[in-house]
Amino acid sequence: MKKSLSSSNSGCFNKLQEKFQFLFEGELIDEICNHGILKTCKKGSTLIEIGQVVTHMPVIINGVVKVMKEDENDNELLLYYLEVGDTCAATLNCCTRHTRSNIKAIAESNAEIIFIPVEKIEDWMVKYHSWRNYILESYNFRISELLDAVDNLAFNNMEERLYRHLRDKVMISKDAKLKITHQEIAVDLNSSRVVISRLMKKLENEGQIFQHRNYVEVREFMKEKH
Predict the structure, then answer these.
(1) Measured between alpha carbons, how far is 72 from 126 in angstroms, rounded to an integer?
(2) Does an H or E element contain 155, and which?
(3) What's the pTM value of the predicted model, to 2 decimals?
(4) Dihedral of the CA atoms 13, 84, 59, 138 (nearest 10)?
(5) Residue of 184, 149, 161 whose CA lies nearest to 69
(6) E strands of 71-212, at which residues?
(7) Each residue's pLDDT tens digit, 97-129
(8) What domains appear along the chain, each with residue ranges and CATH number?
């Protein structure tokens, strides 16, 4: 017989049930609420730092998180975004191997995240078929995204990478108006602000984007008004 939820967990259960009822069974959602740590994270806050001992795996309830990699000179490079229902394969790998994090995770927007303890990740792989599928599919999807990122670095010039990045940002935010600075783009793409500013101007002259005082618009996502 399924145990009843405590009042403190009922809100968490209802929230997860709304988001994951077609992915996880009720018993697993109950366990996630009982053992996970639900956190609200503000935009720009660092969730996971490079070198941190990873004891919990994040699952995104609301919002967007970006996952970054650093080189030996502390230059950052965007690897991929996490959206609702996603988890981080790089963090999962650290959890299961009991190693320190080699990535940085930053809230791209205000977000709600539930952190699952490593011992439960392993237990549920045996206990719940839906959880096992979720973990394996997460691995496969992130590997595919990382291969796309490698292809983008290897075969696309900076202008193509910039435009692809802007398109991805629009699709992630679901808003054609990107409130982002040239410096922020430069950090994501491991470039310089001067280079990004020059290429943004070139894209604007070609009619692919429109730059305004506080935001940027990507033409292909805009309603016809220009």
Answers:
(1) 38
(2) helix 129-155
(3) 0.75
(4) 130
(5) 149
(6) 76-82, 104-107, 111-117, 177-178, 209-211
(7) 777 888 899 999 999 999 999 889 989 999 999
(8) 7-154 (2.60.120.10), 156-221 (1.10.10.10)
